[in-house]
Amino acid sequence: MHYEGNIIRPPSEADSILLQVTVGCSHNKCTFCGTYTGERFKIKKDSVIFEDIDYAAKYCTHQTRLFICDGDALIIPQKRLVPILERINKKLPWVKRIGLYANTKSIKMKTKDQLEQLKDLGVKIAYMGLETGDDITLEKIKKGADSSRMIEMGKKIRKSGIKLSVTVLIGIAGRKRSLIHAEETGRVLSAIDPEYVGALSLMLIPGTKLYKEYENGNFDLITPDEMLRELGAMIAATNMSSGLFHANHASNYLPIRAKMPDDKETTLALIANALEGKVSLKPEFMRAL
Fold first, then answer.
1. DSSP character for 198?
2. Residue numbers of the domain that contains 104
């Protein structure tokens, strides 16, 4: 396979075929992210992509999921993305689910019919980074969209039949807006009503704009207990009709996997017990991105 630069994928795609179609991120302005620093976004040549699909057809015969990398594959023009998906279907007929990252810009660029076409061609899940529902924090971290746009685009991709997994960041608003961030994120998640929510705990990355703000004393990194309180407030404010709320990423202090809404109260009780010291937290040295 022809991989370039940093390759990232959601935790749930750990066992998937990783097909890199783009290099970098089409947005690449978020203050907390250092994954693609200095990397210019590009779409790889079809000849290289098709060669990698042929390679996967030969050597990845036991994997039933495929994830299209990298930062935002949905941004690829439909006339180029459709042939890629058609070749995957032809060469890897055993693949049952194709996933990719999406942001509000790329979702907006696709029509309803185009999204439905992608779904029919095997795109069953999209991952969207919300990070926060707090408009002030969204602007500060340069996410490129406000909460109303997040809701609009989240609903749009859900209506196409493609399942949606939304990522949120515990601690991203700092100390002063921690509970506002939690409650506003719950509001946005409730409005979108995605199939999955993945909560990660902020880990500052040297070289990022947010890390420099931290070094200069302009950003407060909240403590593990404060992160738990924020997570609890977020879950309390989130009303999903169904779906899963995960906080079992390697960055999290307390692994959580809650089926919503059934496990909501049990999960809030678990967080309360952890804050009282009745449940052990993951030690700092075991956390990772």
1. E
2. 11-276
